[in-house]
Amino acid sequence: MKENNRLKEIIKILNKHNFINDKSPKNIRIIFEELGPTFIKIGQILSNRNDFLSEEYRNEFKKLLDSATPIPYSNIINTLETEYEDYKSIFKLIDEKPLGSASIAQTHHAILSSGEEVAIKIVRNGIRDTVSLDLKLLKKIIRQFHLDKLISSVTDIDKLVNDLMTTMMEEMDLLTEAKHIDRFSSLNQDINYIKTIKVYHEYTTTNVLVMEYIDGDNIDKLTILKDKGYDIDEIAQKLANNYIKQAIGDGFYHADPHASNIKIKDGKIVYLDFGMMGTLSLTSQKQLEKCIEYILNDNYREIANIVCMMNTNNEEVDFMTLCNNIRNVLEKNKATSIQSIDVKTFINDMYELLNNSHIVLPNDITMLARGILVIAGLLEEICPNISLVTVFKNYYLSNINEYINSEKLKKSIVSTYFNANSLINIPNEMLSTLKSINNDEMTFNVKVKNSDKLNDSTSTFTHQFIIAITNSSLLIGLAILVNNTNLSSMLISIYFILSFICTIYFLPVIYGDNGTSAGMLKAQRCKGFI
Predict the structure, then answer these.
(1) Is 207 helix (H, G, I), strand (E, B) or coil?
(2) pLDDT tens by residue, 503-527
(3) How far is 160 from 163, CA to CA, in rounded Å?
């Protein structure tokens, strides 16, 4: 009954906005706003999914970031009363005006009874049931209205919706977010320009997260930051360095690093909102590290090999075409200095290439690409001079140096590592060739010199070997007969004479000169005999 009522409500809103005839980005964004929190959150998540949506849809969906209707303060109090026996004994003061209101939860400033300032994040009442129901109905609506035509032709719609469900359900569990904060803090505790947030676990529940209050300035408030004496270039450089370290080094990174989620406080960068975090598998980490190396070295063939290994689509890939397309993307940026390469354009080009090749990347890779696109956009906004590609390159080079230092290699070995490029490339070229053969990219025509002579020599050796074995068997048989006292001496004598004759006959063949015509003729005669 509840499902039918919600479906009728959704269809009514779709008809109200003439959705069948108007699937424009603006109209869909307006529909999402009216459909409520679930669809607003979906739009926010998809706003940076280059692998799913075209740029015009993504730009329109970005407007949904500030579309959540605030939760009434009375509902906030009701939630606190449900979660705690006596919330007033915990919180001395709770500001009625929210610090921020999102589609999943709302945050308020508060003061603990101990006097500490905290931020309280409260999940919207009934949001889990609403999201679960809406996503179930969304699958039906997508099929009915052919919404799959709006996105990538190789996208699995059910998988997309299931991924959205997983992401949103995780974000609605504030105990999970508390764990994310703890893990992030552990991984970044030694970064002196990163401030991590304290979680008050004794007051945190599935529906309420109590954490340290941060009153710094948003990272995009450039005028305010400059007035306080901050160097924007330094901030941007450190932000870029840390984000690449999170993504590639840690394999655990902030998946939604837009300006509202990053503040500057007391000379340090502070990340907020850890509901949506990205995690890279160890395999994906290694593949990405190698991919960065190959991109920096213009090794399009190895990039293609890695992309094929990552591909989760069962459709056959034209490896040669993929190599050529990747080479075209790399050559497009060759004329540009590395500092001037636009990461957003490069990733968009790669996504277009992958879609055309019917290649689907794993979800952890696409989520990372989304995060990189968001951070790239933020860096472009606050400091266009910062090159994320240069940061990638420096990270790669620093990893090489760290490896060398950890192995405590001698200076001579270090010198060899950097200068003997030809030797280093031999294993890589061999591996690349084997992969090319495996992908049916390379075939061989083999021509053997003096093949007739080789065949004759092989044939001669084979026959001589067989003759030797046969003669040995005769001699062994004779020895056995001699030791057998039950056999007549006449039979043994006959066998001895035959063995002697065969031995005399075979000896010239066995020891014949393989290089002479006589030896070859003897071998030919033995063929008939054998």
Answers:
(1) coil
(2) 666 666 555 544 443 443 333 333 3
(3) 5
Name the region of 202 (left: φ>0; alpha: ψ -120 to 50; beta: rest). Answer: alpha
| pLDDT band, residue 293 (cuts 50/70/90) | confident
Within 47-102, residue ranges assigned H as helices are 55-61, 73-83
Helix, coil or strand: residue 408: coil
Q: Spell 493-511 as b/e; 16+ CB within 10 A means b.
A: eebeeebeeeeeebeebee
* Closest C-alpha to 133, from 27, 252, 318, 3: 3
DSSP track, 210-276:
EEE----EETT-HHHHHHTT--HHHHHHHHHHHHHIIIIIISEEES---GGGEEEETTEEEE---SS
Please compute Rg for the chain using Cα positions: 36
**Band of the pLDDT at 331, cuts 50, 70, 90?**
confident
Residue with tokens 């969906």: 61
Per-residue pLDDT tens for 191-230?
999 999 999 999 999 999 999 999 999 999 999 999 999 9
Query: Cα dist. 525→233, 467, 474, 509 in Å?
Result: 89, 12, 20, 9
Could you give the residue ranges of the DSSP H alpha helices within 335-420? 343-356, 363-382, 388-407, 411-419
Spell out the residues 6+ positions from residue 406 whose beta carbon is closer than 8 angstroms to its own.
none
Grade residue 90 by pLDDT with cuts at 50, 70 and 90: very high
Q: Can you give the pTM of this predicted structure? A: 0.71
User: If you average pLDDT over every residue of the chain, what do you get?
Assistant: 80
Supply 67's token pair: 């579309």
Q: What is the pLDDT of residue 412?
A: 44
- Beta-strand pair 100-101/117-123: unpaired
Average pLDDT (62-76) is 86
In this structure, is the dihedral angle defined by the CA atoms of residues 237, 243, 246 and 249, taken in order, positive or negative? negative
CA distance 278 to 250: 10
Half-sphere exposure of 216 (CA within 13 A, CB side): 25
The string of pLDDT tens digits covering residues 472-495 is 666 676 666 666 555 566 666 676
Q: How far is CA 368 from CA 159, 182, 352, in A?
A: 17, 20, 17
Q: Is the pLDDT of residue 530 over 50?
A: no
* Contact of 113 with 203, CB cutoff 8 Å: no
Q: How far from each other are the two terminal CA atoms of the chain, in whole angstroms?
A: 89
Evaluate whether 273 touches 119 at the Cβ level (below 8 Å).
no
Could you tell me how many residues make up the chain? 530
Contact 251, 279 (CB under 8 A): yes
Q: Which amino acid is it at 524?
A: Q
Q: Which residue has the higher pLDDT, 529 or 298?
A: 298
Contact 169, 131 (CB under 8 A): yes
